[in-house]
Amino acid sequence: MKHTESAENYLKTIWDLETGHGRATTSEIARRLAVAPASATGMVKRLSGLGLLDHTPYRGVTLTEDGRRTALRVVRRHRLIESFLVRIMDVPRDRVHDEAERWEHVLSEDMEDRIDQLLGHPDRDPHGSPIPARDTASSPAPEEPS
Predict the structure, then answer these.
(1) Which of 33, 85, 126, 130 lies at a CB distance of 3.0 to 4.6 Å from 96, suitable for a disulfide?
(2) In the CATH hierarchy, which fold is given to the domain comprising 73-129?
(3) Are 80 and 116 spatial neighbours (Cβ–Cβ below 8 Å)?
């Protein structure tokens, strides 16, 4: 199922917070995404309703297995795009993150696979962060999102 850019950004942010802290709070999600706490609460409820999050009020948010798979797909695309921009397009490393933020939501699976193949199936992005495997359901949680 294809999710909105906003939903993907929330899932990726929650994945990042979970990786570092075990749980994400709506206030921390709001801070990271620069949105109002009420907006974060609304999206958390929506994503919970879609089965992508488990949310216990005042205790935090965790990704479900489906939510984790979706977040890791976004992280994978982001890191492959950063690698492509640095290695093929010769874009300086300090400029690739913002560009990858835009591309990660529109890149098709076919183009993702072609970039992965073109780059020789890299396991790390230009910043040294691990690129999740294509089969994200069995991937270990990478260290940090880019």
Answers:
(1) 85
(2) Arc Repressor Mutant, subunit A (1.10.10)
(3) yes
